[in-house]
């Protein structure tokens, strides 16, 4: 009898919690967010330079600054909630967080579960070479040694789109490194001739090292990725406000200031 009572209590609790969640997930929450003056953003707090913890353990990054700037326009406080990145859409749609904002790439698969803001940034794979090498194009990598980071989206693109670079470099493969720092040391020393790298990370890293002027960052034909904010399907007004907020920051120049702080350049996307 006690087991049955306990089971009924657990079921009742689940039903109650589900009902609480549905209040948030089954409607547009902009008016509630406005009245509470608080919004919860989910992120992976290890993604340099979009959202990560500095040496003192404080959250910082391009997306952190951008999100705060957008919601400052509406007098709304941003609360950042570190989450398991593999569970991000689940955490969004069950009401644990209100937005996904952390170098979140727009894909057809994600569009089935999430509503996207307009793209606020584009990411792409670039070829990095030293200025002294004289290599300023992908074609000049013919029979040259290429480096890439192990497990990176750059190496994945290299394998999946072989005609762009794989078919022409030495051994039709890349030397793989566990870190960008290791690869950069070999690039500087001439042990490799070029390095395929995520532009977002490469730009930030070289800026931090004050070495942007020592390298070429060459764009190829790899497909670019759009970074967007992810919201629940019902939160149409919230997404509208985010789009308007980012547009206002672009108009005032604050978006460009945040961009330059983290990347040393303006990453405002060309509107399609």
UniProtKB/TrEMBL annotation:
CDD domains: PBP2_AatB_like (cd00996). One of its GO terms (cellular component) is membrane. The keyword Signal applies. This is ABC transporter glutamine binding protein. It comes from Enterococcus hirae. Keywords: Signal. One of its GO terms (molecular function) is ligand-gated monoatomic ion channel activity.
């Amino acid at each position: 009898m006690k087991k049955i009572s306990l089971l009924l209590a657990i079921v009742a609790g689940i039903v109650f919690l589900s009902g609480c969640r549905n209040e948030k997930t089954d409607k547009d929450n902009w008016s509630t967010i406005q009245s509470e003056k608080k919004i919860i953003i989910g992120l992976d707090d290890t993604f340099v330079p979009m959202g990560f913890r500095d040496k003192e353990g404080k959250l910082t990054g391009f997306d952190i600054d951008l999100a705060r700037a957008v919601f400052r326009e509406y007098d709304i406080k941003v609360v950042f909630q570190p989450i398991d990145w593999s569970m991000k859409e689940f955490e969004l749609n069950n009401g644990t967080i209100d937005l996904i904002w952390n170098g979140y790439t727009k894909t057809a698969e994600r569009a089935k579960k999430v509503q996207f803001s307009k793209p606020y940034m584009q990411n792409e794979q670039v070829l990095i070479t030293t200025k002294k090498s004289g290599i300023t194009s992908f074609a000049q990598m013919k029979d040259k040694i290429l480096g890439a980071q192990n497990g990176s989206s750059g190496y994945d693109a290299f394998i999946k789109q072989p005609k762009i670079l794989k078919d022409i470099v030495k051994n039709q493969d890349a030397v793989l490194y566990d870190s960008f720092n290791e690869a950069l040391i070999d690039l500087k020393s001439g042990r490799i001739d070029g390095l395929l790298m995520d532009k977002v990370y490469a730009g930030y890293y070289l800026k931090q090292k004050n070495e942007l002027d020592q390298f070429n960052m060459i764009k190829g034909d790899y497909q670019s990725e759009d970074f967007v904010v992810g919201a629940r399907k019902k939160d149409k007004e919230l997404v509208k406000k985010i789009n308007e907020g980012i547009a206002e920051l672009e108009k005032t120049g604050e978006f460009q200031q945040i961009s330059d702080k983290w990347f040393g350049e303006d990453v405002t996307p060309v509107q399609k």
